[in-house]
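Bug report (template v2)

What were you trying to do?
Predict the complex of my protein with zinc ion.

What happened?
Run completed; filing so the output is reviewed.

Input:
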Amino acid sequence: MTTGMQHEERLRADIVEIGRRLHERGYVASNDGNISVRLEGERLLTTPTGVSKGFMTPDMMVTTDMSGQKLAGDRNPSSEILMHLAVYENRPEIVAVVHAHPPTSTGFAAAGVPLDKAVLAEVVTTLGSIPIADYGTPSTNELADAVREHIRAHDGLLLANHGALTVADALFPAYYKMETIEHFAKISLVARQLGGERLLSREEVSRLQGLRDRYGITAPAPICPPEPDASDSDCQTLDAPSVPGTQLVAPSGAGLGDDEQIRLTYRELTVLIADAVKQLR
Ligand SMILES: [Zn+2]
C-alpha cells in the first residue's frame, strides 16, 4: 500500500468520525450536512448525498475532480459540492470544508443576526467576525456565489436561512471551527437574554488579532499590508460596500461594558496591528 493510499484511508476514517460527531451533537438532522477534503492530484474526497452523516462508513465516500465530476465511488457526491468547490477555488490553502445546520447558529442565520461582535477572545483569535452569506437555493450556483463573496476573508460563515460553513487546512480543524461557531452562538444567545453582550475594546481586539500570527493562524482575514496595492484582490474584497469583514468592538479607550459601539473593518484592524508591531520593535 502506498503512503498516498494510507493517507486517503485515514481521511475516509476522519470524515466518518466527524460525521458521527456532527450527528451526535445535533448539528445535523436526517441526511443534512456534508464534509470534503482535498486529495493529491487535484481531487476531492466528499461525503455521499442521501445518507445520515452519523452512520457513514469509509467506503461510502466519493472521489471527484475539482469541477465536482465523480471519479470513483458507488454513491453520488454531496448535493452541496458546488459550495465546497467555491471554497477550494478561492482559497488554495484550504484543505477541508464542513457544512452543517447547528440549531443555535442556524437560528442566528435565520434571524439575520451575524455573529460579528467581539465578545470572546477565542473567537476573535481563531475566526474573527462570522458574517451571514446571502440566501441561495441549496445545491445551486446561487449558494456557491453567496459563499464566494465572503470566503476569502473568513473561515466561518453563517448561510442565511440555512446553516453554517467552516474551512481549514485540515479536516479536524474545520470541524472544530463548527463547534466554536455553535458554542459562540449559544453564549451570545444567553448573553442577549441577560441584557446583551459587553464588547471587548478596540485595543484588546487588535491585541488578540496580533496573536494570530504568533499561533500561525492565517484566518479570518488575510493580513493585508496597511496600504495594499490595487492589485491585491484579497484585500479588495475587504473593501466591498457590504463590508463583509467587520466586527463590533467597544470604542477606543473603553473597557468592557460600554454601551457605545463602533464598527471596525479588518482594514482598520490591520493598521492597528501594524502600529502595534512597530511599537514592539
Ligand atoms: Zn445544508
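What did the reviewer find?
The CA atoms of residues 124 and 259 lie 19 Å apart. Residues 220-244, 254-262 have pLDDT under 50 and may be disordered.
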